[in-house]
Fold this protein.
Amino acid sequence: MAFDTDNAFEKEVRRIASLLWPTAVAGSGSTIIDGREHDGVYETEECVHLVECTISRQKYKAEEDTKKMSAVAEKLRRIKRDKAIKCWFITKEDTTADQRTVCQTAKAPTTPLSFHQFQAKIIDARDYLKLRLNHRFGSAYDPRNESFTENLKYVEIELLQRGSFHLWKVQDMVAKLSTGERFVFLGDYGVGKSMTLREIFFALSEHYSNLTAPHFPVYLNLREHHGQTDPAEILERHARAVGFNNPAHLVRAWRAGYVILLIDGFDEVSSLGLQGGWKRLREARYRSMEGVRRLISDSPKSTGIALAGRDSFFDSDEERRDTLKSDGFVEIMLGEFNEVQIKRFLENLGYAGQVPAWMPSRPLLLGTLFSKGVRSLAGEDTLETILYCEDPSKGWDLLLDELCNREAKIEAGISGQLIQLILENLATRVREKEGGLGPLTPREMTDAFAEVCGYEPADQSLIVLQRLPGMGRAASEQGSRIFVDAELADACKAGDLIRFVLQPYNCDHVSQLCNALSPLGDTGLGIAAEKLTFLCSKEGNLKPAFNTAAKQQKSSILTADLVLLSRQLGLPCTESVRIENVTFDILAVQADGPNLSAVDFHGCYFTRIEIEAGADEKCPNFSECLIHEIDGRVSTSDLPKEKFKGTEVEVFLDGTLTTESISRLAVNDGVKVVLSVLKKLFVQSFSGRKEQALFRGLNSSQQKLVSDVLKDLQHYNLVTKSGRPGETIWLPVRRHRPRVLKMLQSPATSDDVVLQNAAKII
């Protein structure tokens, strides 16, 4: 209810009065005495309270109302000699000095109070709101200092109403919550549920402070209320946690309808004493939500409520609605950041540098990377150097470690290292699934936990399995889960391959690695190569792993992983290796890369193969394979001889823009260098090139421009830098390939800003 009229304000004051003096005789409230209306008369056993209220700040209004009350007080003293008579003058805002003087000098002494002061006799909401700021808001935190109470500026995200195309704004939700509307915020890990709920808390607090409405928000972290089922106990524990002196007052205000409930983390409540494992998990979830259900059902119908938690926590929407009793709640799906929001988020943290193309779009992951960057600052390093120059595999490896440690802080009793090992075990299992993301059955989830921890999961351990970072609900079976982030899944898949390479004769997951349906992706391979860099010291370091793989009945996928890892490490495959019936994404053969001539691919499918000029002798053998497209060659006769027997190539990409043809273009050297670099990264080798290779084919004056050109391309997010210690590798940002090809096809007429800037490089 907004205080937009005298009547609305009077109604709210009378409601408070009836709560303060519940024993008042029937008929208390607005009354006509001697032909004049009085806003409130409340007669209790010991006292008669006279109440006048106004939204006016004028002195005359205080004079008028105190005279009315003084006349009635004088009459009542003669009639009710055994009772005290007390007068109250209530204003919307703080009473003015003139109004206070009038009240003090009135014939019947009158107590002047603002609405907030009058309401504080039920609860001092302003004191609660001030104290609440010093207590954490769910998982929201400031990456600059890892504080859970700093006010990090909120970046508005997409809030889509489920089942419609309606996008909500925070201020619209605030208005609806003030009128009793109810919402449930759903999303996977790290999308900003707590930050959004906190922003709503701030807006509602401001409305209350500005006297826009009499309701104030109470923000509950459900993780702090394990095992609690009584709403009063929940509210009182919360009050004590924030340091509020009168916990019972918070309960009284809630029952009176003055509270808007913001309930964060329904996925963070566990049920103790769980027996029966996963089969009884639904029952356990229902039991653990008893406190939430009662908070909702016992709240006055006019109470606005917002719930938040991971969408994947429950097996179905129906279970969530039944368990939370949230039928009729507006369901809001939280979206991830777009590029503009990523930039704004980082700018709010004080970072205005370049954002790498691989940067994840979830606020939690962005904050984690930023926090790690701040902690890593040393010497002459800048935050931009740390955030921008790390390659995707390094970034996701860092994130995996940080996310698991964060999850361990939420659920006591299990370390971040164990959570990571569980995720890696599950990631190996999904490699046997079509699509490589899942689903994983409840049995597979518990088996993974038992393999890692040595015992069956129970109680909080089962809750950990339900809310593992990067995993969501699968539609195929109740309780089943899938990886929702393909990049994070690929990062997790690296773990068992690394352990196999380190201990090929004593690895528990060899058969699972052999049963995978597809090789490891770029992120997983990058992480594995980074962890195994020390193996580059000697060519034969991978031989034990290759030998063990060869002894397996089904070994092609594991062998493929090892070949790709060898290539990533720069180690040649010197002994004959045969890989059959495997599907690959991209395979690049480079003149300055490792020798792959001993590798035979038979009956394999490749989305794309890149063969650089001068790499013929290092090219693998392909027999009866299907290749969608080959880059770097223009026809079958242009392929390395005797290397493609019985193999069908669907498309040869146009490779006519050679280094020589670029040199003959009527453009300046800056443009020629840009075209040369883009050709080498986006046409000749889509998997990256060593920096020294980008200088080849250029004359001495053009070579001097390469560094400036790379900086410019990096500025426009077309290329990114990565690599192991001792070498620099430049990678193309793949999503910009259509743009780059367009520049390469018409360099003389292109209006792309990259070529325009290149023309100015001297």
